[in-house]
Amino acid sequence: MxxxxxxxxxxxxxxxxxxxxGHLIATGSADRxxxxxxxxxxxxxxxxxxxxHTGAVExxxxxxTKEAELASVSSDGTCRFWDxxxxxxxxxxxxxGEGLTIGWANDGSLVLAGRKTNQTLFNPVxxxxxxxxxxxxxxxxxxxxxxxxxxITTNNTGVSRSLPALSHSRSSTxxxxxxxxxxxxxxxxxxxxxxxxxxxxxxxxxxxxxxGSDALISLYDTxxxxxxxxxxxxxxxxxxxxxxxxxxxxxxxxxxxxxxxIAHTETGEVVARIETSAPAPCVSWHPNGKYWIAYSGDAGxxxxxxxxxxxx
Length: 312
Hints:
The strands form 7 sheets. This protein has a 5-stranded antiparallel beta sheet, with no helix packed on it. The protein has a 4-stranded antiparallel beta sheet with strand order 1-29-28-27, with no helix packed on it. The protein is 0% helix and 50% strand. A hairpin with a 5-residue loop joins strand 10 (99-104) and strand 11 (110-115). By secondary structure, it is mostly beta strands.
């Protein structure tokens, strides 16, 4: 592995995300600031600063259909939509509570914002037909999408969560919902003995990676929703999980211990390790044809490392 980028961002990074093409990467920090970086020009003067949140930026996610539009949620209780080219906030939507996670539908039509213990993830392949939610008891709920229009059910066929769905289109600004959606529960995965805190779907949707506060990553086969293998090399709570662009490798980030282990998805074998001087809670693979890994925690803030020539 060779260094690709090292930034100088002294404030604690809470979230990192590549844009769909992999030409830009966004960081959100405790200093209430979003910053957009170009890996080919790592100096701060070449980055774009986006300000508007009044609390820490907890999660950022790019519109999967637009390379210069992203959304962020913050402890200030808002979701904001940004245009990187104009460097402006194009819409602000109140969430009614601290925002902790966010997920775009893969067609860019809507955003789902999570509060409290929920992590959210749409199936990235095809139209958004399923939604995955974490719970505080170690399970992951798989629900049908779009939500039901009738009243919230109370039996085992339905579940209600504090997840505002924000409609979004190219011709209008995001619109907040009148209420949280009522979701029909399809499956429940009892994945961990304690809270599930991170989710990632492989690019082909073959595997779902679930990171838990029990320091484990479980890999579920989405064909039959059976856990095929468990990765146990992480020292603490798995704050983030990420697959390589081809789904061959998976990594996890933690705020305890040092180093990032790269595991082969099909075998669970650790095939490489990135040494770090500090814990790296935020990790993310490059999304488009390069074996680059972005992570937070080391001196300098954001760091990107990659195999020479982009291959492993």
